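Quick entry, no commentary yet.
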Amino acid sequence: MTHSSLLGDLIELNEALDTDRQIDLEERKHRDRHLGRKLQQYRSKPAFQIRLWLQETGSSTARKHSLRGTRLYHTLCLILVATGLLAGWGLASAVLFYDGEHPINIVNAVVILVLPQMLLLLVWLAATLPIRLPLATNIAATLGFLNPGRVAGHLASAVSRKDNPGLAFLWAPDNVAILGPSARWLFSFWSQLFAFSFNIGAIAAAFFLVSFSDLAFVWSTTLDISNESFHRLLTTLSAPWSAFFPDAVPGLELIEKSRYYRLEESSLAGTIATSKQLAIDLGQWWPFLIAALICYGLLPRLLTLAISWYRLRANLRAALCNLPGAPELLARMNSPLVSTLAEQPEEAYEVAADNSANTRESTPYTIRCPIINWSGACGRPDDIIMPLGNMGIEVLEIHRAGGRQTTDQDETLITSLCQDKPEGIGILVKAWEPPLLDFVDFVRSIRRLCDDSKPVIVLLFGGQDSVSAPDSETWQLTLGQLSDPNLHVEPIGRTA
């Protein structure tokens, strides 16, 4: 599977998840868990799981949007390749134009065909480093209108429709945090594809002109540079290929023969016309020019193209797993299936009936326990004493953890609570916030330090509102992956 199909799958997944939300939650649980069991061998490859899920459940509308996006992607790639080839061929042909009167200045040729590419390469490198350099970032932003990748992005946006944004979905402002890296590396891939094609075109034009015309190269500069100094400079520039392509390293004799001054231009043209040997000698600069284009133009762009391709694939995979709704989908596929409507749990996992996905109706409580107010879930914790009492939970005391509390402080609290050997522990959380890794680690710490036979009840607090069913599902599925039969998730009050 190529990154273009990854791109198509990302577009399709965005549409599919939107459509999927209209399906009943219980139906989704059973469907996705069934698929998850079929794809159990790919559990360590979540992006691949999602792509296979799309093959099984994707709608025709979502697939249509995906196909439109991938077709546009391929079209833009072809346009960039063709434009790059033409631009490289055209510029090289203009720089290497020789009419028999004005020899080609090799200094100008290198400065025009090679030096700008090296400078732009440094800007690209600085802009893609993990550590952001303000100057490089500003330069990259200033030169954004010259970036072929950005231009291609504008074209994609121009042809997109409201009902089917296609590629433009990647840089829409709604999901910048998730899709932003993929968009940046797509732009980078496009720009490097153009630059690579440019070098191919320039090298092809140079070979063509060398093969089918008689070129004469000279060098000239207003700077006070001796032949020996110029020779040392070219020897340094030729160091990467000098060992295996020595003919592409200009010698001192060639440098002395080919130096000219503008006042002598007319006489030099006459000499070239009458001296066959001089004409042959002045033509010997072309291997150096070709080698410089390959070494400082083509090969670095091939490397940056490969890096952009690799990073684009990696970020597309990450985006597949982090689109809104994708983590819940993976949880449904890979978590034990326990439904409040089911008569028995899924046999393959032998999950106890009072598993974390159970609700108050299937798990009545008669318990006295301390309550941990996680990350300030409730500003007035005393207000939840009565609702918890109605659930059969008698609050012994209320403690704080998470948020501004350090990990050491949380560990100390857990150790202190476990020493008292409570009947269980309740953790009050914000229902609208998904369980993050620090909370999961906190639960694991409780299990590590306390008796794992005692229940840990995660209490979903919805503030002024009822706890929504999607929020409850997210907590149940995420914590269900811990496979802890004595870990419970309970909304406080009604579930909307």
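second:
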Amino acid sequence: MFKKFIAFSLVFIFILSSTLGVFAGAKVPTSIESPKNLSLRENGESIIDLRWTNPASIMKVLKDIDNSEYSGDLAYLVDWKMNDSEWHTAIPSSDPNFNDDVNGQFYGHVGGLLVDEGNVSETFYVIWHLFPEKTPADTYDLVNNTYYFRMRYILEPYANEFTPIYSPYSEVAAIGKNAAASSITKLDPPKDLKVKIEKNSDNKPYFQLDWSIPQSISDANKIRPVYHIVDFKIGDGKWLSESVTWDGLPVAYSSLLTNTYDLDPIEENLVDKVVIEENVYYFRVAFVCKETGGNPIVSDYSNIVSTKVPAYSDASPWAQPELDKADNIGIITDTLRGSDMTRPITREEFAESAVKFYEMVTGKKAQPHPTKKFLDCDNIEVLKALNLSITAGVGDGTKFEPDSYLLRQQMAAMITRTLTACYEELVLDISGQPDFLDQKEFAAYAINPAKFMAKYKITVGDGKGNFIPNNNCSRQEAIAFLLRSYLNGDQYLK
């Protein structure tokens, strides 16, 4: 996030300054560092961009001034020359010969500049800054001439409270005929992109994007301005970049290199509304650099992030591929999304999953039972499962026991009832399927459903001939069995 430093006003300083002009705390430095990484870039035919890095010690000077540690101002001075001419040396505003119309372009307050994440600042010079007799119709002649720039800082006191302190000069930067070419041919993409949903003062959502800046990008930014562009889409829709060019995408503020961006699609006229509850929003970020002449270099995109809650927080290695497939085809419910899938599934959670499976397979919207209710559960999804005969409740049918864990044999029965609701032509064929070794432990209603599931490889139990009917069914097992029921349909629907 860029920073802007503002020095105290002269009047305020006069009021607060002591006779020495120095407050308790940081002392006036005895010397200051020079600007670093000075570079030049042609930005159109009549503009030269001047770019440099402010050392950390300079940023500390600004902070000390901003905190009223002493009363002064930090400014920059830019000298220039063309070819072998003498230097045009910038002078501070305190110089009696200072003329704002002539010298003001080459003297400026460091605290008034925008500074990016790497403490890089930038200013520009149109040709009539250098040659006041020129007009907007005139251009730099970079083919036949070479333009040289150097700069330094000056720490100036208010009311002569200390002697002005000049930094050494930066290295000389050149552009034009005899300048060594410095070019950028490739940009690395942003790394580790993340998104957070935030709310503005009107309680409206927007998206905070954060990423890491590769060192190669920080180095490139010292030579040429590198900034980010944001691409996004909603659900299965098209990326914004598929309908506009790169320069039509949301862009960094002031074209500064930053590692964060607050995207409000409404404010930027990209969408009419943002509805987090109904839509999934996807984002990716790239870096852009305009080389001399204006030709853009665009990096590959970062990783894609979305507002979609991850399918699970934890799962066994064997289950992860199937859970990912189940998520892709829409089997995982909102209730289970992001949960620990190794935990037992409740009767309520499975009923919701079964209804979601039914609606996905049939394309029909399930309806709750028109008359029957449960005394201990008013979940509309459970009442849909009741209407579909996926469940009949427990005991006399007046209760559902939503929080009770689902046993494996109960799961087998509920899955086969779900498949029966989905496919009218379904026959629970168990011919040729041997008994389980632990079949005596089954409730009678669950034997055939379990054999059906074993025959069609929805689940084969422990792989040793046992089904383990009275063990709790885990969330990952339940979702995996529903997925296999879906994928293996061509076998049992023949």
